[in-house]
Records
---
Amino acid sequence: MMDRSDLKKLLGFGYNEDRVFGFVNAGFNEEKFNENLDILKGIGDRMLEVRDALSDDEIKKLINHLHKLWKEGEEPESIDLTLLEARSLGYGLTEKTEIDFVYFLIKTEEKDGNWTPSCLKGFLHSLLRHWYEFSPDVREAIKQLVLRHSDKDAKEIAVIAPFIDNDGPAKLGAYLRKTKQSWQWAPPIVLMPTTRINYPYFSDTIQTYFNDVPQGEYDELISALNLHNQMRTDKILLPKLILEAEDFDKNLLDVAMKRIGDPFDETKWAPFDDASEEQKKNLQQARKILLNWVMQEVIRLFFEVLCQDKDRKNFWSKQAHKLSNFRVYGSIFSRQQVLKYLPAQTVNRHFRTVDSNVDNCALAMFMGDYVVVEFTQTGALYAYKVGSSYYREAFQSIGSLSKIDDLKVTRMPMLYDLDYMRFAPEGRMTHQGLYWQWRMEKWIDRQIKIKNE
């Protein structure tokens, strides 16, 4: 191991605060910079000669060799390891490692002549990396190994003992909040590099730490989720925050769409492996809330920005919770307008550009087995039963729609016959006359079956 004086000799230049700021004030010296880079490269080459652990392939071969010995009935006391093998052994555990083989590896590791306190590092890495994949027995075996040696061999490890209990990750998150430390210090507290924040172990740590994040203040949360990058954490923490939100939160919507996905894509919001019934329920309830948020924003955007129609906006806002999907059809200019208000991911998935540059746009709203189409230019709405002949006629060329009017089948009957006071299964309805909202609401209640409402 190199101490500070050895490092200074190798570097060949001093490094302290005065000199560092002196270099800055003096300006950039490219020649000296390149010279120092060469010195550092030389140090790196020399350090490669002294390895802390075997390579991944070498560890795999070592584990396979020991597994064969275990199967053959070899006693752990008869197996000698090199220092490098002893340090590397713990890194070789996976979710498929049998508990009896784990005991065998631990006994081999603890044999006199094999053991060194540095052996704990590999076992700790494997424990945190496979925290939710390891069986309770494997987790307990590694925990007991740490406890046995934390006092007599590696006292600095004793401080992490409370954090490797089953509820240890949550304890760590609570400890960081209580001591007002950043979530970024979670890995170093359990003797891991900060880059290991992506280990699954830190899922409950981050959930606990951000348990009561103030609404709208998500910058730190986003940084943590991006670096942690575990779907399990996203699908537990974000639904909780969504369920607690009092009203529409565009920032939270953006975070959820980036981390989990478009709520209109059910596959993105499928439960993660081993999710509890409560977690599954929260995930689906949160998805429904997001659907309503998106539809409310789409309706507001369509009837406030693309056109100005307060009556239609108010009516469809009350129906938003019944909608399961939507499409917006319009010109390139209209698409640019929509991008100002909705995430690009949503626009790419739900906006269809037509060839015509006419300002008229269409909003297709799916509910139950029907799709209702509204237009920015006041006239009539059209309600199609998905799969009917009228529907096929209106949407048959949807991939290459040339003009918005192609979505209108004008010979359709009226949805509500004023003379006979009866509803048609599909048709059109003008926005003229008294109580069109009442008639449309009655038609929706009578005709559309909403699934999972």
Note: DSSP finds 20 helices and eight strands in the chain.
---
Amino acid sequence: MLERQRKEQKIVVSCIAYHNGKILLLRGSQVSDRASSRSMGYFSIPRFTVTFGQEPEHVLRDAFLDYFDQVLDEMSMIGTTQRLTDMGQTQEVEIIYRASVPKVTSRTGKFIFVEKDEADKYMFKSAYDHLL
């Protein structure tokens, strides 16, 4: 008899971060968090897993400091989405924030800031187009 597939629910938090009208994109392979790494090779907005008991806003602030050496300002939640992943075995709920980055630091290689109309050149996922 086949073993019953275990279903799970996962919460991730994403952020559309702006600096001087440009948005921050990162390549999924540049961040070790599973939520960001699912889009290996592609550019997207930063996404991080929210574990039980964590505040999504704190996860974002801490991750932006750790990974990008960036401080987030003027944060606001702009939406939520849900999707089934892992061939329908995982329900992913995504909380999406918008924020500004007041000062860009010199840490390079993990992210880039691009003009909104140039995002297509980086194979940016169009799932966020309506939120830009």
Note: The radius of gyration is 15 Å.
